[in-house]
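Quick start: what a row looks like.
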Amino acid sequence: MSKSLQAIRGMNDILPEQTPLWRYFENTVARLLDNYGYKQIRMPIVEFTELFKRSIGEVTDIVEKEMYTFEDRNGDSLTLRPEGTAACVRAVLEHGLTGAGQPQKLWYIGPMFRHERPQKGRYRQFHQIGLEVFNIEGPDIDAELIVLTWRLWGLLGIRDAVKLELNSLGTSESRGRYKVALVEYLSAHLDKLDEDSQRRLKTNPLRVLDTKNADTQAVLVDAPKMADYLDDESRAHFEGLKARLDAAGIPFVINTKLVRGLDYYSKTVFEWVTDKLGAQGTVCAGGRYDGLVEQMGGKPTTGVGFAMGIERLILLLETLEQVPEAISRQVDVYLCAFGEAAELAALALSEKVRDQLPNLRLQVNAGAGSFKSQFKKADKSGALYALILGDDELAQQVIGFKPLRGQGEQQNIAFDALAAHLATCVVQG
């Protein structure tokens, strides 16, 4: 027998019972970003491989190990996007969105792809919402990105479960001086470093700071600190950011080992982390990348942004039981019709009600069926109320109205009064 078809490992279906929570989360974020003046941009999920090599860095784990890269029929090397910033920068440059120093505040949503070992909260196809801001160089915009995420956590009811970690990586010059000192120190303790850190010491030494190996972490306790190598400009920028977060009442901790996994970051880097999801603790992360646009062929342009993992935040909402009860109900009213004449009348009446109550979630029974079977479907739909239309009701130009989730007797409502009655009974989104 042939093998049954199934999804690729680490690439998951989002089923109908799950999508209401996803839509709730996505709509909450979209409304918030509208309120802060961000505009949505949509990029392709496939880009030329060179884009990510140039932006992320050829010696990063993402480019070396994790990208889904293939050759198309024209012989071009293409890659499923592993992150959104590089693609957004490419789009901004291609369409001249930052010409003449014009500021841009953009956001995007969609799937990303990395060939990692799948586990809870970490998948090979995962979804992100990202924000990117160009041509605003002060710490005020860094602070705005963090403030709006803090507001989002409040809207979602998860503020008590997340913690903000901050660091500054300085400019490329100050970071270069720090790398020299770090490599010199770590080279003197080479025998105590794990194998992965020994490799990173030669290719991307800052990534050693992010190690999870206990022995290497012990070595790093006395390692040089980035803060001691910051230039005056970066130090002033970081102090300005911290002052604004203090003014907004947002708690944070300084994590001197926070470096992020991409080469393009400079100055501010931050992560929102949680201890409620086991090993996958980062739910939102980002920072400044003031040199990236120029690195990709554009004019010097400041940039700052972040990305949040939708799967992890959905999992956090479920773990903390912060899923609004109302979003699990996808039907408000279920209309049962018995007989062909009633079915025709039900179609006309339901469309008239939808004209008057455009936000009402009204489902009309399809496929006929007995009284018992239709009521069973009405109950299974999760509707609050059932409407009943048969020959007797049709003759009197009324429809039966029966509560399904609480107390109340069935009553008859005149056709022309139905919309007004439903408006008083159902809270519409």
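That is the whole record. The first helix runs from residue 19 to 35. The radius of gyration is 28 Å.
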